TrEMBL record:
UniProt-listed PANTHER family: AFG1-LIKE ATPASE, ATPASE N2B
Key words of the record: ATP-binding, Nucleotide-binding
Designated name of the protein: AFG1-like ATPase-domain-containing protein
Family designation: Belongs to the AFG1 ATPase family.
Compositional bias (Low complexity): 62-72
Domain of life of the organism encoding this protein: Eukaryota
GO MF assignments: ATP binding; ATP hydrolysis activity
A GO-annotated cellular component: mitochondrion
Gene3D superfamilies reported in the protein's UniProt record: P-loop containing nucleotide triphosphate hydrolases
Pfam family, one: AFG1_ATPase
InterPro entries to which the protein is assigned, alphabetical: ATPase_AFG1-like, P-loop_NTPase
Keyword Nucleotide-binding: yes
Residues covered by region (Disordered): 59-79
Length: 515
């Protein structure tokens, strides 16, 4: 470091920097005894071991130190990204590197940040008149919530002065959001290993409502349950990473601002990905004007960054592994069977394993402790919910889905459930094998469209926004609305990504994603 600083100072125009001498003992010890005595006795001996003093300003010293340490960080997202480039897992990309630098900055701030202890709970107090009026307006259409307007509030502590701003990364399908979150979460500072949590935002809000229901049952409706839930969350996790941040439910919209304020007050740092900018959240939602303050809070508390570029990272050429099989015949059934047996290895294969989900039992037709196989009609032909699929994909590392048919307008509900399942498998980093009758990308196309085989202008506009071509969608998608087409496009994009070698690597790296 001394040598590096002196060299850097030389570049600033100075000959040397005055530093404590660290080389004199070694020089003297290597001389003869006589020379050693002369060095210690000579009045000018310091010239042999001490450089001339040159006085540099504080700014010059800081510049010299910076010049002496220009190498890339050894820890964090940047180093992890460079390793993956060197190993050929990903292709170097300047746009992604610009985002990685933001993540590295967040890593450095988290490394220097010490979350404060959570103090004792102060007594609740009555809310202000303005707050009561605001609540009354917001809950006006929900009679069972009217009494909340007069609910006592628990005072929040001031947020830590050194609390790092959160990160809000948003962009369209294929912009690399999930990859960047994978990289960041897997390479957080070691001190957060036991206090970090990554979760799909929908699953997180389900957990919040479940905790709130328990508190209200135990302590009564008058409790400021949102703050109590936030305190518990802060005790468990000091860093929260949210996938797919979106607000579509009024039940979420009406509590989100208070929840975020409380999490910040208790020193929790949040990083989130989303398909929408903050200003697009809860668009056209019921009483959206009451949600605007939450949007402003997000913009104040997070560094907001759009990830969109001209590149769809999911469509980049990649070595494909054989994971999708079609059509359904004896040969493809045999291939799927061989794969299942090969992955199962010596693990016991169990038929009709019961899986508990929200107090109900879901039948798993064929499984080992880590692998499951379902027929399409068993998984998507029954009224299962997103929560069911989240639990299934969290339980099994690998899932085989067989006998997937052509889906048309008469099986639209099954198609929606299939998309929910794909989303859950994607978020859980589950390895997916599919046996379908049509090619996997044509599963959602209607064979007998009622619009003469043409995509409507409305559909085409939405597809253009998503960068999705008619060649991929098919002659006529069975979906029509904005949200349906968006979910459909995302499902196709994710199926494409899940067929690549990088997906296998990602699955092993971050299978601990929570749902």
């Amino acid at each position: 470091m001394v040598v590096a600083l002196r060299r850097a100072a030389g570049r600033l125009g100075a000959r040397q920097i005055a530093l404590p001498c660290t080389c004199a003992p070694s020089i003297v010890s290597r001389t003869s005894p006589a020379l050693s005595r002369r060095v210690h006795s000579s009045s000018s001996s310091s010239l042999l071991v001490r450089p001339p003093r040159i006085h540099l300003s504080t700014r010059q010293l800081a510049t010299a130190a910076s010049a002496a340490s220009t190498s890339s960080p050894k820890h964090g997202p940047t180093a992890a990204y460079e390793r993956q480039v060197e190993e050929g897992i990903i292709v170097n990309d300047d746009h992604q590197r610009s985002i990685i630098s933001l993540l590295q900055d967040m890593y450095d701030k988290l490394d220097a940040y010490t979350p404060p202890p959570i103090g004792p709970l102060p007594p609740p107090r009555k809310p202000s008149l303005l707050t009561r009026i605001s609540r009354s307006r917001f809950f006006a259409t929900m009679e069972d919530e009217l009494h909340q307007a007069n609910r006592a509030e628990i005072p929040l502590p001031a947020a830590p002065r050194d609390l790092p701003k959160g990160l809000y990364l948003y962009g369209s399908v294929g912009c690399g959001k999930s990859f960047l979150m994978d990289l960041f979460y897997a390479n957080l500072p070691a001190k957060y290993e036991q206090s970090k949590r990554r979760v799909h935002f929908h699953a997180f809000m389900m957990d919040v409502h479940r905790r709130g229901h328990k508190i209200k049952m135990e302590k009564g409706e008058a409790q400021d349950w949102i703050v109590l839930v936030a305190r518990d969350l802060a005790k468990e996790s000091r860093v929260l990473c949210f996938d797919e941040f979106q607000v579509t439910d009024i039940a979420d919209a009406m509590i989100l601002r208070r929840l975020m304020e409380a999490l910040h007050a208790y020193g929790v740092v949040s990083i989130t990905t989303s398909n929408r900018s903050p200003d697009e959240l809860y668009k056209n939602g019921i009483q959206r004007e009451q949600f605007i303050p939450c949007i402003e809070l997000i913009k104040d508390s997070f560094t907001v960054k759009c990830l969109d570029s001209e590149i769809d990272y999911r469509k980049r050429p990649r070595a494909l592994s054989k994971v999708y099989f079609d059509p359904i015949n004896d040969h493809t059934r045999g291939e799927i069977s061989k794969l299942f047996d090969s992955l199962a290895g010596s693990e016991e294969i169990v038929e009709h394993r019961p899986l508990s989900v929200w107090g109900r039992k879901i039948n798993v037709p064929l499984s080992t402790p880590t692998i499951a196989q379902f027929k399409f009609i068993e998984l998507c032909g029954k009224p299962l919910s997103a929560a069911d699929y989240l639990e299934i994909t969290k339980t099994f590392d690998t899932i085989f889905l067989v006998d997937v048919p052509q889906l048309g307008l008469d099986t639209k509900d099954q198609a929606r459930r299939f998309i929910l399942f794909i989303d859950a498998a994607y978020e859980a980093k589950t390895k997916l094998f599919v046996l379908s009758d049509p090619p996997i990308t044509a599963v959602f196309s209607d064979e007998k469209p009622k619009n003469n085989g043409e995509i409507t202008a409305h559909q085409r506009a939405v597809m253009d926004d998503l960068g999705l071509s008619a060649d991929i969608v098919g002659a006529s998608s069975i979906f029509t609305g904005d949200e349906e087409v968006f979910a459909f496009a995302r499902a196709l994009s994710r199926l494409n990504e899940m067929s690549g070698v990088q997906w296998s690597h990602s699955s092993k790296m971050v299978k601990d994603v929570e749902h």
